[in-house]
Amino acid sequence: MSVDTLTIPTQRVQQSRLAEVDFSNIEFGKVFSDHMLVVDYKDGAWQTPQIMPYGDMSLSPATSALHYGQSIFEGMKAYRDSKNGDVLLFRPLDNLKRLNLSAERMCMPDVPEDIFMQGLEQLLRLDAAWVPSAPGSALYLRPFMFATDDFIGVRPSATYRFIVFTCPVGAYYNHPVRAAIEPNYARAAEGGTGFAKTAGNYGAAMMPARKMQEKGFHQLIWTDAREHKYIEEAGTMNIMFLIDNKIITPAVSTTILNGITRNSVLRLARDLGYTVEERRVSVEEVIEAQDAGKLKEAFGVGTAATVAQIAVIHYNGTDYELPPVEGRDVSNKIAAELDKIKTGQVEDQYGWTYRI
Ligand code: COI
Q1: Whether this model's pTM surpasses 0.80
Q2: Which residues carry this modification: N6-(pyridoxal phosphate)lysine (predicted)?
């Protein structure tokens, strides 16, 4: 199969649900578009992809992903071109690359580029009307793959299912984030799966996150598993600080997700003339910078969250109130530039947008 020739058999919905959706008030991840892409892997090969109505699936109780967690996913977004209404997908090949890195770590098969790209393209053409155009909104795409053997011996599954469904979304956080530095639990350890987007990383984060939420914080800031001394990520996002007029962010490693929004923000920051440092960032450095009035901005970056301002950092019993989010010229400027590229308001000199 080549990217040009793959025509995906499509079963359309009889009646679109689009008219039922209140686009002015969408909770993240609760509303699903009409169709989904489904591709099965068996006998060592990907089978013919299909597009079908979004809906429930029937699975064996022994489905191995449910027991041993061979399950990986991606998050990506499609936007409306503000000039002509075309659908623009943001950096899909980078998501495919990361999906396949996750697949390798979890002993799962690669998803071929033609299936991924043609699948996305045909799915988005069919559900183009679901791509919102209001500022801050997008169509979120959730590609994922899970092990489907009905077998509970512990070994890599021989069969898998790859699905892409989509959701119109607004902002993931519609308020500045109160974040707490996690001093005990760890998200990832060296040699583990921290760099992979695998379901278990998120499941394991829920209890520590819940504990912090009960104390009034929206997100955790994870620290390294060995010493809890260095900052890693902020919950579902990478994290960045503006200290002494430099954008400082933990370097990606085997324990940190290599975020596509992270990469885009850093590229734009450099091109806008800001100094960027990707390196280890200790908790002490951030707290000392805050005490000295040198920490001007802190923000999370991710596909779902885009650029999410952090208003408060809690550490060791103290709430550190950061400067007001309205005056955060650096992150707000980069976020605005990124948004202009994603929505076709400026020329995309990076080749990040993929026109459907
Ligand atoms: C994304 O930003 O797309 C993510 O994967 C975070 C998600 C778990 C909501």
Answers
A1: yes
A2: 197
